Amino acid sequence: MRARERAAVSEENTHLDVTTRFWPVISDDEIARVLARLTHPLSGTALAVSNRPTAAGVLVDTRSATVFIKRYGPGTVPADHLRAVHGMVAHVRANGFPTPGFLPFADSDTVWETPTGTWEVCEGATGEDRYRDDPTWTVPRTLDEAHGLGAMTARLALASSTYRARRNPPCAYQSSMRLFAADPRRALPQWLAERPGVRAFLEDHSRRIEDQWAPHLEFAAAYAPIAELLPRAWTHGDLHVSNVFWKGNEPSQFIDFGLADHNPAVYDLALAIERNAFEWVDIVDGDEDAVHRDITTALIDGYEEVRPLSAPERRGLVAMLPLVQAEAGLNWIEYQYGAAHSVEGATWCLDIFFGEHTRWFTRPVGRDYLAWLADSLTHHH
After folding, report:
1. pLDDT tens readout for residues 177-223
2. pLDDT, tens digit, for every residue of 145-184?
3. How far apart are the first and last CA of the chain?
4. Looking at the whole model, is its pTM more than 0.90?
5. CA 93, CA 90: separation in Å to the nearest integer?
């Protein structure tokens, strides 16, 4: 999620305040220390401080090239999760997919754990950072951009289809479609046991996920029979326009794979629709029609030009869409409460990101959109 999410937390708690930088800015001394530890040591000066609020980042000029240094807060992310993500990035790059590579440290690991945080260094991205200051749910400026984003999403699915990670432990930095792929009533106790920050928030504030998951159970029951038919792959998990660098109307590179996880391959297309065709800030504010069918169609058309959807994937895309952010919304409580100690942020995750986003699909406008999408995928593709 990029900084400058529109509006701070309001009295109704309908928006998440991510305008305030939470983690300390990476210092010049830290830059020098991290770059000196690389297999091929570098030195350089800061060009720009990242505006992303969930980790500290800085773009550095090393004279020969630019690199991006990121520091995750102490204890916020397991090193093995980052290693799995870095492995995915290396795999898709080897298969020709354009994304910055990670640089190894002297011990050949691309992750460095220290008492002040966990570090990674990657190449600077190439292309135009066109949407760098825009909020997460920003509509692409043109349908050509949406088409290009769909095509690049399909390229990623093809490139990642043969990646096998050794391990990916549960953590806040994941975007997954597991909890609601079967019966969440059976899966929830174990899911919570693996996420102490979520469990603590619910206990400390007398909240229950079950109090508002009736729509989720309805959609999960419809999705479950399809889920087991869907091919799986490692997915990016956060494909909004500001995680893309651009050249003209085409993406030049995808960046920020930090939420990557193993999911149905079509999950990234569903997420790209949720992130780029829905103006959720406006929807939550009462403009329930702030959804763009033309962008939805452009994303799908671009995707299918590269990787045609199977019949189960067409059904799965429709069934998945109301739930595509449900688990991620709950999982992000682990960061908001467990790491950032934000009651407001955790409450937003539960009530809006988890609750309200899925409830929209139960309303007439949401049901109409799903019916349109199902008809479009059946008859027009």
Report:
1. 999 998 999 999 999 999 999 999 999 999 999 999 999 999 999 99
2. 999 999 999 999 999 999 998 778 899 999 999 999 989 9
3. 31
4. yes
5. 5
